[in-house]
Amino acid sequence: MAFVKNIVIAGLGGQGIVKASDILADAALRAGFDVKKSELHGMSQRGGSVTSDVRYGERVLSPMVPPGEADVLLVLEETQVAINRPLLAADGVLIGPDIIAPGALRNRKSLNVAMLGALSAVLELPETAWVQAIHANLAEKLHALNEQSFALGRDAAVKGAVGQ
Amino acid sequence: MTERLLLSGDEAVALGALHAGVRLGTGYPGTPSTEILEEFDRLGGRAQWSPNEKVALEVGIGSAFGGARTLVTMKHVGLNVAADALFTATYTDVEGGLVIVSADDPGMASSQNEQDNRHFARAAGAPMLEPSCSQEAYDFTRLAFDLSERWKIPVILRLTTRICHAKTVITPQPPVQGLREPSFRRDIPARVMIPAFAKPAHHRLRAKLAAIAEWNEAQGPLRIDEPERAADSPAKAGSPQGRQGRAPLGIVASGVAAVHAREAAPDARQLTIGLTWPLPLERIRAFADGVDRLLVIEEGDPLLVESLRGAGIGAEGKPEMYRFGELNVARVRRIIAGDRTPEPAPPVGKPPELCPGCSHRGVFEVLRDLDCIVAGDIGCYTLGVLPPFSAMDTCVCMGASIGVGLGLRHILPEEQARRVVSVIGDSTFVHSGLTGLAEMVYNPPPTGHVVLIVDNGTTAMTGQQEHPGTGRALDRSPTEQIRFEVVAEAMGVQNIHIVDAPRSGQTGAQQLEQLLRTLLAKSETSLVIAREPCVLAAPKIRLYEKAAAELRQPSSCAADIAD
Ligand SMILES: Cc1ncc(C[n+]2csc(CCOP(=O)(O)OP(=O)(O)O)c2C)c(N)n1
Ligand code: SF4
């Protein structure tokens, strides 16, 4: 099958997992790829485990990342790392929340976008696509804060040589 | 460049409906269907929540009889509620297209069962379309209206959770033009289903289905993918030899299972069916003739495979273990391999629980402490079944709390009967609790009964939708509010109390506890309404109320003058 990139974003309800996957999928769309993303949501209540699958490439078929085939597993909450690890491919990259230094973020709510910044260091999506996607998916008053968080996450990943 | 949009299946249906010229969308919230009407409203369409799915469909039937294209949305179990209307609506002639969305939930991400609503198409005689991605959700919505109008028949668009909530890329088409304006045209034999008219109407229905089957054979939405022998020589795919040669494996599939199958078996020849009822059996037969092994990949019940076998097409289905839960690429690979070994357990995450500060918490602490036998219902409050409350003993379907509670009261020994309480949410009460209340008044058990409405001012479970008890319509504009205490009084309930839902572990609990003790000791019928807004919805409710108050200001002046 033609090239498909598989990313799973995991964390707890209320952390903005779905928003993060919306931004990632939108960035891939803007970069000209076919994209599918999927997660199970429905329960309003907060706090349960959430995972969201994003796949992009020339042509994507199933909207779900098959277990053990994620190229990247991005986890926003330490307790969710172990349970989701089986989703990762043998040569896949795990990015955990420890990549963002405690206290580094001006607002902890933008952790999801900071993690996308870290993710951007291992995906080949153009920076403009990311910025446009962040703008399109967040209210204007949040743009500056989230762009900062994104840059912070990206730097952290580059310095930490994630995926090398 | 053509416009490319990344839409969920639900959003794609809403856009498709808008572009198909839908005049009215009705429905009742239910995961995974809820976002369709919300999006249709956001896009500028006219959408409204009904008290339940049956009413939504009835309003839809009327609208379609009046000549308007009409969309009715619900989750799979909603179609059970609407089934009475559906099974006779198919006998009638609709004037404007009538499309019913059934959003099924294989795997029960957020449902009480995983029933397969493809059965309804067969049982009610309704054509059914099943998209496999958002593009098809958009295209099939538009097609459904065309088919519905051409044959004057309600059409079911069946989605599943992974179609509703997955986002995939779509390219929209220009909206339809030149639909006729709604206007009443009398056609008594086609719309009044007394036996004299219903008998010929049933024959007409079967003739319509036969004609639609013929259309499906000739030009129904159906795709054949040729084997992709090698990923690096795509030119071969679909080549004339490929098309004529026999394929070792042929797959027949529909819905999201079709894309899983295509990914799992790129080397198979695959037939993906869009209009899955009535089936294009001759096209399937021709496909079957060109393959050595014919395998049906379907989620849920073995319906498609049984239909093919019934038509004499030798098809192989999946082992029984794959009837349960959703399919995915890994499971389809196992089905193809005939693998019946136990599957690896999926990761067990942290289950959902009532939000911190949720108003249901305090109520369930009281019910637990009183050791009540709780006939429960469906909504966020169903989580009262889990620790630390463990205070729910039954939960079957929406509204069942009242009937089940009454049944227990009738039959249990007195000391147990006196502990039975029916607990029901506000949205659920309007949906299907009113008739339960009538039953309580009409056939009161010897020990009486206590119904407790946990009124948090919203349909929280499905993402905070309005309902007739909130005083706001789908678009949050103010409308008449049904007051439960007034309804209960009119029905003849003997004791009616409104209390604040207690804060978890706080003093309000004593008040509710005392009240319940008193009512449980009486042999009378009682309704307790415990009020406290859902903490997630409360800030928004305050905003809506403020907006409504501002709106009322000038208009109430005008009313004064008019008086
Ligand atoms: C027939 C049917 N329609 C829809 C649903 C989806 N659903 C489950 S509970 C519920 C309503 C919940 O609202 P409410 O009773 O007010 O309780 P809350 O979640 O606010 O606590 C809905 C719409 C369903 N399970 N069955
Ligand atoms: S969404 Fe509202 S009703 Fe549901 S658990 Fe949270 S606070 Fe409670």
Automatic annotation (TrEMBL), chain A:
Q: Keywords, A to Z?
A: Oxidoreductase, Pyruvate
Q: Name one GO molecular function term.
A: oxidoreductase activity, acting on the aldehyde or oxo group of donors
Q: Keyword Oxidoreductase: yes or no?
A: yes
Tell me which residues make up the Pyruvate/ketoisovalerate oxidoreductase catalytic domain. Answer: 13-95
What InterPro entries does the entry give?
Answer: IorB_Oxidoreductase (IPR052198), Pyrv/ketoisovalerate_OxRed_cat (IPR019752), Pyrv_flavodox_OxRed_cen (IPR002869)
Q: Which SUPFAM superfamilies match?
A: Pyruvate-ferredoxin oxidoreductase, PFOR, domain III
Q: Does the keyword Transcription apply?
A: no
Can you name this protein? Pyruvate ferredoxin oxidoreductase
**Native species:** Thiohalocapsa marina
UniProtKB/TrEMBL annotation, chain B:
**Entry's EC annotation:** 1.2.7.8
Any keyword Transport? yes
Q: Spell out the SUPFAM superfamilies in the cross-references.
A: Thiamin diphosphate-binding fold (THDP-binding), TK C-terminal domain-like
For this protein, the record's Pfam families field holds: POR_N, TPP_enzyme_C
Name all Pyruvate flavodoxin/ferredoxin oxidoreductase pyrimidine binding domain ranges: 16-173
The record's listing under Gene3D superfamilies reads:
3.40.50.970
User: GO terms for molecular function, please?
Assistant: 4 iron, 4 sulfur cluster binding; indolepyruvate ferredoxin oxidoreductase activity; metal ion binding; thiamine pyrophosphate binding
Please give the catalytic activity noted in the UniProt record. Answer: indole-3-pyruvate + 2 oxidized [2Fe-2S]-[ferredoxin] + CoA = (indol-3-yl)acetyl-CoA + 2 reduced [2Fe-2S]-[ferredoxin] + CO2 + H(+)
Return the cofactor note field.
Binds 2 [4Fe-4S] clusters. In this family the first cluster has a non-standard and varying [4Fe-4S] binding motif CX(2)CX(2)CX(4-5)CP.
* Assigned keywords, A-Z: 4Fe-4S, Electron transport, Iron, Iron-sulfur, Metal-binding, Oxidoreductase, Transport
GO BP annotation list: small molecule metabolic process
Keyword hit for Iron-sulfur = yes
**Domain Thiamine pyrophosphate enzyme TPP-binding span(s) in chain numbering:** 377-528
Q: What class of enzyme is it?
A: oxidoreductase
Q: Which domain of life is it from?
A: Bacteria
Q: Please give the cofactor(s) recorded in the UniProt entry for this protein.
A: [4Fe-4S] cluster
Q: What does this protein do?
A: Catalyzes the ferredoxin-dependent oxidative decarboxylation of arylpyruvates.
Quaternary structure annotation from Swiss-Prot or TrEMBL: Heterodimer of the IorA and IorB subunits.
Instruction: Please give the PANTHER family that the UniProt record associates with this protein.
Output: 2-HYDROXYACYL-COA LYASE, INDOLEPYRUVATE FERREDOXIN OXIDOREDUCTASE ALPHA SUBUNIT
**Protein name as it appears in the record:** Indolepyruvate oxidoreductase subunit IorA
